[in-house]
Write a structure and sequence with these properties.
The complex is a heterodimer of chains A (954) and B (66). Chain A has 954 residues and is of the alpha/beta class. With 66 residues, chain B is mainly α. Chain B is globular and about 30 Å long. The chains are: A alpha/beta (954), B mainly alpha (66). At the A-B interface, helix 22 of A face helix 1, helix 2 and helix 3 of B.
């Protein structure tokens, strides 16, 4: 593909059951009723000059350039605001129109700098194009009059500049901020000639304003007024490749715009089914980590973790690693070996790591980071509905009348979907937020929750059971749906259980701290407000009752008939780009791809035949069990691909003790991450820009990841994609694999996994994306699941008893710590900390309520010690009423803070998903970093030494 | 394996399944351990002193041992 920008049809697509036919410049064209004349002209192959119109924004009609003549209509209406009508005869190019347009362009250009040749948007500028289209040759007014030139550029945003001298006040940026992103950070200040685009309040620049740096305004700008700094530095791209973002579970698709091997910019792809041309600050701008100086591109080994690293060839690294693995297996047996697949790597790569563990190592000790995020989703939805995934596509939210968000913060953690949700809320859908913290959705411009149930952390099950109590006892259940779709006996058991007086909102209020009347009103709204959809995140799963909460959510949806059509459903918002995919690929120790239990003889036989080995029928170790077994001496070697378990897993002390006890820790990553401090082998990884494969997002959408540049981890052309490294390791162990391309791995996945039967790279290339299951029953995939009935047959109501966590507050630890994410940083921050995103969030801070702060003599900016029964760390305080009294909050993006030194090992009863969201803590004033932090800083710089003396001697 | 941790896990599973009634909860606890525990975890809890197990968990582990 060349560089040409995507076609812009001027006004948004209209969905209509009826259509109209009109004639434009003698060409007949048929379009859905309600389509603008401008869009109809573009569809018919024409191009009406325009400046203020763009097909991702509502028509505005301000630039006066898109004027047309219509038979029977007076004057020259703007084509963007004129709907096409049956039999209409339109002319877009006439001498009269040419004269009008030229006049308009003359006015624009008379107040625009004429430095086109040195402008960053040269040859990529809609103003330039429009001037060419109208044939502008001179400007009668001259350039001497009053103008807006020579205004200072606002360079405060690290990724783009705002140069108001080049602004034509078309309002596209302001409208994009409102309509696409929903932040309302931009406005047009002043009137008439004084009109000016302004970020935030007077005195603000882009950085200090509410701007979230999503890039929608940059995308919308027709000139160089809002332009990427990278384009100014590098120049216009020469080619583009469509690929899928490697940050969160939304799965935005982008055009990676390239100059040779150099990425110039990432532009959201308008045809992306998950993002529809929108992006966030991470995917759009924060890709600089790919070439960061910290990136390790050579394999390295060391005998002992006290030694410095030694750079070696791929051959030496792989031979060394394989012989160590074989020796450990020979001495301690297959079950002493294991691996961890990555939710950041592709499906093909995750599949191959679990294949290496099962077929090569000979054990089922494979797990994935979903263990610490969405494993309860897998368990809970499989039990109730029969499949371990969300029920809807993202677009379904546009048909929702009531949106219930529980334990999720979409505008920070899933920002592009958050924007879509806000769009629906602005259209009038009602919002219920269940969260201990006042997340942005509770109240932000033009969005306000009908109910915010600020529950006590750890009481999700109690709140949901109380809601069920209201629904059942007030007769709001959808009996007809339940009779038809669900197991009636199980429903009746459940209904009896939730109806007990001990589950009423009034009885539970002292536990949940949610006023009973609010809870009743929220339950009634959910049950009776029309299409009701539940969106949830890690605030649901990362609890001792994570699996119970997921099942309680499923119970509510079934009880109210909110399953099986657009606008409803149960929607887990997945954390990482490929959490869904890594789970689908058989990354859990108890199941093979497609969620089939390892003890199932028929399934195992299928794989045994294909792989030519016998498989262990017993489930393997989960991540936390691996550390226990390591300390015990029965688990000795671990291959970790693309995960930083030391930073992301709870109780850091326990993780490090486990890692330290192992004979061989292999880290396969981009950077020397925290886990690598305890590693013996480092295999350099490849970024998502350097590989082919697929990611599966939170809506089960499988999308292609395309290689846009060569992997950096080898000499030119000899770098290895991550799956190639896994294959090379397998072959060094003697497995004889011969995949030539990741598409061959997908072919094997499709062959062995019924829900992927119809998936191939070729089909994905053609279709853009597919939502599994894709098979004979669903040849084109499944945007919405359980349409005619549940996958498991009858929907299963599960009685979910509220069993409080054993993590209790008391006199020594009186506060509850809960953790979360922030927009600009991602997970453990390995990527985003190595970009300019740090201007928004340079460190983790502790949010504390004014009352709790006052009791401790704390103010914002003070160092505080955060201590739990597990450990302690120190960070700066931020006093805010976003958190309730008794609750404190922080993020876990920075290793210097290591919030997980504090978190405990309590975990979900069914899946061992850690209880990150509830830790009893004390907060006290402090002078600076804790002793542990200082010791750790020293350890990690010592552990990262690389001995390059051999190389230097050559 | 850390037997204290395994005992805690077994009790936690049992407590969360207890609302199903004793017989069903014992079945479900046993099935959960069979489905999700690695063999060395199963062996360890069978071999260890079961005094710390709650009645439902104890009954499930007794059946695991049989």
């Amino acid at each position: 593909m060349g560089y040409e920008p995507q076609a812009d049809f001027g006004t948004p697509e209209v969905q209509s059951e009826t259509s109209v036919t009109l004639t434009i410049d003698g060409r007949d064209v048929t379009v859905p009723t309600g389509t603008s004349v401008m869009r109809a002209a573009a569809i018919s192959g024409g191009s009406i000059p325009k400046l203020c119109a763009s097909d991702n924004l509502a028509a505005f009609g301000s630039c006066r350039l898109c004027l047309v003549e219509v038979d029977g209509m007076r004057g020259t209406p703007a084509s963007c605001t004129t709907p096409a009508a049956q039999g209409m005869v339109v002319r877009t190019q006439t001498p009269h129109l040419e004269k009008l347009r030229k006049g308009v362009m003359e006015l624009y250009i008379s107040d625009h700098p004429l430095d086109c040749l040195t402008c960053s948007a040269n040859n990529d500028c809609e103003l330039q194009d429009a001037a060419a289209q109208v044939g502008l040759r001179d400007v009668r007014y001259g350039y001497a009059g009053e103008n807006h030139l020579a205004q200072p550029t606002d360079s405060s945003n690290p990724y783009f500049d705002f140069d108001p001298s080049k602004c034509i006040v078309c309002s596209r940026c302001v409208r994009a901020c409102e309509e696409v992103q929903g932040t309302f950070a931009l406005t047009i200040d002043g009137r008439g000639f004084g009109s000016k685009v302004s970020a935030g309040q007077g005195g603000d620049d882009f950085l200090s304003s509410d701007c979230v740096s999503c890039g929608a305004c940059v995308q919308a700008c027709p000139t160089a007024t809002l332009n990427e700094k990278a384009v100014a530095e590098i120049g216009k791209p020469e080619r583009s490749v469509i690929t899928t973002c490697a940050y969160c579970g939304v799965g935005c698709t982008f055009r990676a715009e390239m100059r040779g091997q150099q990425l110039v910019r990432m532009v959201p792809w308008k045809d992306g089914k998950a993002n529809h041309g929108h992006s966030c600050v991470k995917g759009r701008f924060a890709w600089g980590y790919a070439n960061h100086q910290d990136r390790i591109v050579s394999p390295m080994i060391r005998e002992n973790i006290e030694d410095p690293w030694r750079e070696v060839s791929w051959d030496e690294a792989l031979t060394y690693t394989a012989s160590k693995l074989n020796a450990i297996k020979a001495q301690y047996g297959a079950r002493a070996l294991g691996g961890i697949t990555s939710s950041r790597c592709t499906n093909e790569e995750a599949y191959l790591v679990q294949k290496l563990v099962r077929a090569g190592f000979g054990s089922n000790n494979v797990d994935t980071c979903a263990r610490v995020c969405h494993s309860p989703t897998g368990y809970g939805l499989k039990t109730t509905f029969g499949t371990s995934a969300g029920t809807q596509d993202f677009d379904s939210v546009m048909d929702a009348d009531v949106i219930l968000v529980i334990g999720a913060n979409p505008t920070d953690a899933h920002p592009v979907f958050g924007s879509q949700m806000k769009r629906r809320l602005r259209e009038g859908a009602k919002l219920i937020v269940i969260d201990p913290r006042r997340i942005d959705l509770v109240k932000s411009p033009h969005v306000e929750a009908a109910h915010h149930l600020a529950l006590q952390p750890g009481t999700n099950v109690a709140v949901l059971t109380a809601m069920a109590h209201v629904i059942v006892t007030e007769g709001l259940a959808d009996e007809a749906f339940i009779r038809e779709r669900c197991d009636q006996d199980e429903y009746e058991d459940w209904a009896r259980f939730v109806s007990e007086a001990r589950h009423s909102p009034e009885t539970l209020a002292p536990v949940t701290r949610v006023p009973a009347e609010d809870l009743r009103a929220a339950a009634r709204l959910y049950a009776t407000g029309g299409n009701a959809a539940i969106y949830y995140g890690l605030g649901v799963t990362e609890h001792s009752q994570g699996s119970s909460t997921v099942m309680a959510i499923a119970n509510l949806a079934m009880a109210t008939g909110n399953i099986g059509r657009s606008g409803v459903g149960v929607n887990p918002l997945r954390g990482q780009n490929n959490v869904q995919g890594s789970c689908d690929m058989g990354s859990f120790p108890h199941e093979l791809s497609g969620y089939r239990h390892i003890s199932d003889t028929a399934t195992r036989a299928l794989f045994e035949q294909d792989w030519g080995v016998a498989l262990d029928p017993e489930p393997g170790l989960r991540i936390p069990n691996m550390f226990d077994a390591a300390i015990d001496g029965s688990f000795r070697a671990l291959y970790v691909q693309g995960e930083d378990i030391l930073q992301s897993d709870p109780n850091t002390h326990h993780v490090s003790a486990g890692l330290k006890a192992m004979d061989l820790v292999i880290v396969h990553d981009l950077f020397l991450n925290e886990t690598a401090n305890y590693a013996h082998v480092f295999l350099p990884g490849s970024t998502f820009l350097e590989k082919d494969g697929t990611f599966t997002n939170a809506e089960r959408r499988i999308q292609l990841v395309r290689k846009v540049m060569e992997p950096a981890n080898g000499p030119k052309g000899a770098g290895l994609e991550d799956w190639e490294v896994t294959q090379a390791l397998a072959n060094a162990m003697g497995l004889g694999w011969s995949y030539a391309h990741s598409s061959e791995i997908m072919a094997e996945i499709a062959r062995l996994t019924p829900s992927f039967a119809g998936v191939s790279h070729r089909r994905l290339d053609k279709a853009g994306s597919l939502q599994w299951p894709v098979n004979a029953a669903h040849p084109d995939g499944s945007p919405i699941m359980h349409v005619d009935g549940f996958v498991r047959g009858k929907g299963k109501f599960v009685v979910t008893d509220y069993v409080p966590t054993d993590e209790k507050t008391g006199p020594r630890f009186p506060l509850l710590l809960t953790t979360g994410r922030i927009l600009s940083q991602y997970n453990v921050g390995a990527q985003t900390r190595r970009t300019a995103n740090t201007v928004w969030h340079a460190e983790d801070v502790l949010e504390i309520h004014p009352t709790d702060a006052e009791n401790r003599g704390l103010k914002s900016g003070d160092w505080v010690k955060l201590a739990s029964r597990t450990g302690e760390t120190a960070l700066h305080a931020l006093v805010t009423d976003r958190v309730a009294p008794g609750v404190v909050y922080t993020t876990f993006h920075h290793p210097a803070t290591q919030a997980n030194v504090v978190t405990t090992e309590f975990s979900d009863w069914a899946t061992n998903c850690p209880e990150y969201k509830v830790t009893a803590v004390q907060v006290t004033p402090s002078n600076g970093p804790s002793e542990w932090q200082q010791g750790y800083a020293e350890l990690s710089s010592r552990a990262r030494r690389i001995d390059r003396s051999a190389e230097a001697a050559e | 394996m850390d037997i204290g941790n395994l005992t805690y896990m077994a009790n936690q599973i049992a407590r969360n399944l207890a609302a199903q009634g004793e017989a069903a909860a014992i079945d479900a606890t046993l099935q959960h351990i069979l489905d999700f525990w690695d063999p060395r975890m199963k062996a360890a809890i069978v071999a260890a002193d079961r005094a710390g197990l709650d009645p439902i968990a104890a009954a499930a582990v007794a059946r695991l041992a049989a």
